[in-house]
Amino acid sequence: MLCAATLLNYLDRQALGIVSVDIRREFHLSEQDYGGILSLFLFAYGVMYAVSGYIVDRLGTRRGFAIFILGWSGAQILHGIAQGKISLAAYRFLLGAAEPGAWPAAARAVNEWFPAQQRALAMGIFNAGTSLGSMLAPIVVASVTLVWGWRAAFVATGFAGLAWLVLWLILYQPPARNRFLRPSEYEQFRKLVPAPAETAPAGYSRARSWTRLARTRGCWTLMLTRFFTDPVIYFVIFWLPEYLRKERGFDLEMVRDYAWVPFAFGGVGYVAGGWFSGRLMRAGWPLGGARKLTMAAGAACVPAAIIAPVAPTAALAMVCICFITFGHGLWAVNLQTIPTDLYPDPEVGAVTGLSGAGGALGGLLAQLGTGYIVTHFSYMPIFLLAGLVHPLSAALTYRLLPERYFDGRAHRISDSTI
């Protein structure tokens, strides 16, 4: 269910990129206009990423997830009735306000159902939905657009989210209240994944405020690293179809046939990254060391981005972009698992939200810059920056989160930033 939710999340957000040329032509939008609309989406996304974590922590995983997918599916359907730049921007803003709730809710669900050795793999499986959604988006959106027009593509993908919501409300409950677990099964389950109240540190009473959480080293380190690295995958999601059509001569049918390939490699990266860090832990590696080594391996793949704009053929450029998505998958799945390693259950959603807000802020600024740079210069500086930020962020993570921050989780009740 979590994998399907992130699939729909990315299918919805990427639909605009697939038909951007057609919409820009109909609404007379420049590339800077398009970049501005993407920035508005990311502004709402960043603000609500932080807020959504707080909401999910207060409402619980089941209700919190239901509210957010209802919101983003409705916003996606509204795209189908957009009449110009302002209405399109407004609906994009609504989509950005609702979509980030998926990640704090999914992180809480993983924390409720999986022990530490399995969390990264579980996070990898649900995060693989982002790549599956990005793979399906060119196929689904382009196919529907070619037959019924771009408006029908938004309506169809929005209604798919409403169908998911019905299944979620029927199927999901946390382990203690889940009707599909017999009492004997639940007792066995608790030995591996104790209830949140049983794992809270001594002296812990309630979740801390956003400001106190943001001052902890774990939280602001995650915010900083996502600020630098999330814009890379946003660039691939929002600008890859535009790049292929403008710089590599693709038409809409070619985008449908080939633009999904990098996201297939991204999906492999998410699952492989989750599996590999768990495998390292089973081999005796410490928790933090396993997470950071896998992230470093992913960061080593991303500099292939530098070659993409100068590649002599479109096929070679696509290979370089596949390295970006695969490397980011290894990186992101472990980075997004760290809140479950460092913080108690009542704070996982809030920390995930705050770190995601940092990533969305970086993405917002990057979208504004990308629109300007592409209009006045070329894609070369964008690919250059995309290739450098992951290795630099990996070095920051090693420096700012040494192993003692993962040992015993004792720092969870400390507000110290040191």
- Poorly predicted ranges: 198-205, 409-418
Order of helices and strands: HHHHHHHHHHHHHHHHHHH
What is the CA–CA distance across the termini? 38 Å
Fraction of residues in helices?
over 70%
Proportion of residues in β-strands: under 5%
Instruction: Characterize the largest beta sheet: strand count, sense, and whether it forms a barrel.
Output: none
| Top-tier CATH class | Mainly Alpha
The best one-word shape is: globular
Full CATH superfamily name: MFS general substrate transporter like domains
Task: Give an overview of the whole structure.
The protein has 418 residues and is mostly helical. The chain has a single domain, classed as MFS general substrate transporter like domains (Growth Hormone, Chain: A, Up-down Bundle), CATH 1.20.1250. The chain has helices spanning 2-18, 20-27, 31-59, 61-79, 85-98, 102-113, 116-148, 150-171, 183-192, 196-199, 210-215, 217-247, 252-258, 261-282, 287-301, 314-335, 338-342, 345-376, 380-400.
